[in-house]
Amino acid sequence: MKKATCTAPVNIAVIKYWGKRNEELILPINSSLSVTLNQDQLKTTTSIAASRDFTEDRIWLNGKEDNINHPRLQSCLREIRRLARKRRSDAEDDSVSRILNYKVHICSVNNFPTAAGLASSAAGYACLVYTLAKLYGVEGELSEIARQGSGSACRSMYGGFVQWIMGEKEDGKDSLAQQVEAESHWPELRILILVASAEKKHVGSTAGMQTSVKTSPLLKLRAESVVPGRMEEMIESIRKKDFESFGQLTMKDSNQFHATCLDTFPPIFYLNQVSQRIIHLVHRYNAYYGQTKVAYSFDAGPNAVIFTLEPTVNEFVEVVKRCFPPESNGDPFLKGLPVDEAPLSQELLSAVECDPCPGGVRYMIVTQPGPGPVESQDVSLDLLGPDGLPTQSI
Ligand code: DP6
Description:
Helix content is about 35%, strand content about 20%. By secondary structure, the protein is α+β, with helices and mostly antiparallel strands. A hairpin with a 4-residue loop joins strand 3 and strand 4 (about 25-30). Helix 1 runs parallel beside helix 3. Ligand DP6 binds next to helix 5.
């Protein structure tokens, strides 16, 4: 039996991907840019084993067996095996050619609750592709394959600040992710994830963007006339570590993405009352200081992602707690990097004043930019036992 275990990160787009020009190859209608989050707080771990004794390919996700025939999963498996075969004929590597004929068992877990509505498909597919590549000894560019699992997954193949260049070719060979700056580039940058209490399940990204492409004239305008300029500006502000410009663009792009959702027919609403309160709170906080100290971004759900710099974290967390008094349910309200208590001045309190909404934010995860996927050398993290079956059920 040959095995590999790897971990991969979540990423949050600051220039959003929304809309495909090719559904099957997952080719986007615009380029996008994201920040890779640190795996100490959020990650997917995947173990894959190949053995002569396995009779079929199988997959377990978060402790439960899942459907291996999912078309996107099959695309990733097929493409990696194709690359491995190509390499084998180049390198005449016997051990690889042997395991290429074996079936695989795949076991994958997230270290964050899927129920929280945090996008897990990006980390999941990035981890799948990276682990398969390690198993089969495939090196080099892999974002093109991760993209075929889930569009945003291609950006989780690198750490730090990553752009997904939309490309022009019909076969998608030039629709790739590329690192803009490494995770060490902007050490003060912090990311807070505010998990909002949500009533019901929302429209998934894949279905949502399909309807938007078909019905929203604003989306077309955005892709053609707005995003190209914003990509350049965003890369520039990251290179210069200019938070004012980075924060403004991040908020504007999140708002435009949600505007295209409202422009979709029938409209899609991802933001709820809690999200709207957070938006107002951020603007009031920034207005008090007369500069952009914090910036929000929202994906296809009500959770807020806040970008800020290290010196602002303690105070802003305190402000959030005032506005959304934590409801104790046994779980800690704050997870991730340590946060110290910060006194709030009367002036600040009256500037950000809001009607307290207890429990509106269920908990917060404090994190920072982090590296791309890594192979684990620690056998205790192996999710598949010597029999090739999951060692734990979650
Ligand atoms: C709002 O990558 O989940 O998070 O390609 O259909 O799998 P598929 O969609 P997905 O869409 C992510 C949309 C987003 C914005 C972003 O991450 O850029």
